[in-house]
Write a structure and sequence with these properties.
The protein contains 15 helices and 19 strands. It is α/β, with parallel strands linked by helices. Strands 1, 2, 3, 4, 5, 6, 7, 8, 11, 12 and 13 form an 11-stranded mixed β-sheet that branches. A 4-stranded antiparallel β-sheet has the order 16-17-18-19, with helices on one face.
């Protein structure tokens, strides 16, 4: 113990002598809804993230891409996902925007920061093409403990295949904690890698990607028990409480109405007592995964403080997409959620309040699919405390922010190959509550599409869906379609989106089977199209 304390003290002394450059940590969680944190209105206790928000900033209009792999590609590269080669998931669909892996026309944050003297580390879910040989250790990370994809919590899972610094290792490898839980494992190794950075007298960049709260939802019996019975009031009551709390916190505007209950989700009064028990159990498991993730954030923060690096570390926290409605309104409860072979999904009925007050879910480009909590905390660099930022931001902005904070430059070439220019903007002006000057933000996934210019958003559901137009300042829950009353604005924004789609490799589309998740559209063609895709 004494030796460990002396070693920790030496790390702190070393940092004070070389640590002028800020450290950077990006935390990405998986399938978490917009209202799932306490500081964004949730009943789930998240005291550690709430504390980061209280000591820093919460963005109310920050966006992801609506799906796992594209979000990871955008976050890593500062480009739109199709430009990086990951317009869908990790299957090569035969056209450049859908190659299923990071291409060589992009650079990762690690590849940019490493030449600037940073120690770069990655811990958690990768999912940008390791099946094609695209790996953390091959894309700029000095250290990594990663899974090629995700979807596991316990070491006994068939999906739990780990790589330590490029070496495949067994789940009971002596270098790993015994009986680990993935949320804690990623954090523990993040701190190990930080220790290596301090030993090498380098500032660090840590890319920390949690599985939680992605399906299959799994947690310890003790953690689940904390939440049993808390959801027997039903999804409508949970959403109503969150909605009121979000207005109180200033996260949403009181004039934005709640989106209506989806037609496939029953009123709670029509749910049988037996099913109420089951649904309570589902949401209790989900809440347990979120709570445990927050506890891991607390472990990370405590570790940074112990090492004397908390004050000069910029922490950015976000989710890869909105709440997940996969498995339909009934969800899924196969097996025991405290065991690795179980298969539990929240389904649409609980995804509905998770995305309060917005419409739709993961996959879609309506606000429920693409809006994420975003917390920025940096005591030495952000003077504001417990403030909101309403400037629209996007994952593409994280690379530009890291470049500015690190005091380096984004390259024009890498490994003697030309690199695509950055799409994002540094968030540093927004940290100071200044506006971000941009033309628009764009989306496309599975034929779902959107463009936001100022407060106006054009969005469609599926390749053949009708364009819908919303004024997000007045109606961010997207309930009042202005398309018929403002046809010229629809024409302007759709042309703008088409130009971007060609420039950004959204087009050519690989084939219509891409649009499995697009769903039924206003034109009525979506159902036929989805059936053809099957």
């Amino acid at each position: 113990m004494r030796t460990a304390l002396l070693l920790l003290s030496s790390f702190c002394i070393l940092h004070s002598t070389f640590g002028a450059k800020p450290n950077l940590i990006v935390i990405l969680v998986d399938d978490m809804g917009y209202s799932d944190l306490g500081c964004y209105g949730s009943e789930i206790p998240t005291p550690n993230l709430d504390a980061l928000a209280a000591g820093g900033l919460r963005f109310t209009q920050f966006y992801n891409t609506g799906r796992c792999c594209p979000t990871r590609a955008s976050l890593l590269t500062g480009l739109y996902p199709h430009q990086a080669g990951v317009g869908h998931m990790t299957e090569d669909k035969g056209v450049p925007g859908y190659a299923g892996r990071l291409n060589h026309s992009c650079v990762t944050i690690a590849e940019v920061l490493k030449p600037a003297g940073y120690f770069t580390a990655m811990s958690g879910k990768w999912h940008v093409g390791q099946n094609y040989g695209v790996t953390p250790w091959g894309r700029g990370f000095d250290r990594s403990l990663n899974a090629a994809a995700g979807g596991f919590y316990f070491p006994e899972s068939d999906r739990a295949k780990l790589f330590l610094n490029g070496e495949p290792i067994e789940n009971n490898d002596p270098r790993l904690p015994q009986n680990w839980y993935s949320t804690d494992l990623w954090t523990a190794f993040g701190l190990k890698f930080i220790d290596e950075a301090l030993a090498e007298r380098k500032p660090f960049y840590l890319h920390l990607c949690h599985n939680a709260p992605h399906f299959p939802l799994q947690a310890s019996a003790e953690d689940i028990a904390m939440f049993r019975g808390k959801y027997k009031t039903g999804w409508g009551a949970v959403r109503d409480r969150r909605y009121a709390r979000m207005i109180e916190l200033g996260i949403i505007d009181a004039k934005w109405a709640k989106s209506p209950r989806p037609k496939d989700v029953k009123p709670w009064s029509e749910v049988s007592e037996e099913e109420k028990e089951r649904f309570d159990h589902i949401m209790a498991v989900y809440a347990a995964t979120v709570w445990r993730m927050d506890r891991a954030v607390g472990d990370l923060v405590a570790g940074l403080k112990q090492r004397g690096v908390f004050e000069n570390t910029l922490i950015l926290f976000m989710s890869d997409n909105g709440g997940n409605a996969e498995a339909g309104p009934n969800g899924r409860t196969n097996g025991d959620p405290t065991k690795a072979d179980s298969d539990w999904f929240c389904g649409e009925s609980w995804a509905f309040p998770q995305n309060t007050p917005f419409r739709l879910y993961k996959h879609y480009n309506h606000e429920g699919g693409i809006a994420t909590p975003f917390i920025a905390h940096w005591p030495a660099g952000i003077t504001a405390r417990n403030e909101l930022r309403h400037q629209p931001g996007h994952l593409i902005d994280v690379m530009a922010t890291c470049v500015e904070v690190a005091g380096t430059e984004y390259p024009k070439t890498f490994n003697e190959k030309p690199i695509q220019p950055l799409e994002g903007l540094s968030l540093m002006p927004a940290f100071k509550n200044q506006e971000l000057q941009r033309e628009a933000i764009y989306w496309e996934h599975e034929g779902n599409a959107a463009v936001r210019a100022g407060d106006m958003k054009l969005v469609r559901k599926g390749l053949e869906g009708a364009w819908e137009l919303y004024d997000l300042k007045a109606d961010r829950s997207e309930l009042h379609d202005l398309a018929s009353s403002q046809p010229e604005k629809v024409k302007q924004l759709s042309a703008q989106w088409e130009e971007w789609a060609v420039r950004s490799k959204v087009k050519p589309y690989p084939n219509k089977s891409l649009n499995r998740g697009a769903g039924k559209t206003k034109t009525g063609k979506g159902k036929k199209q989805a059936a053809a895709a099957k």
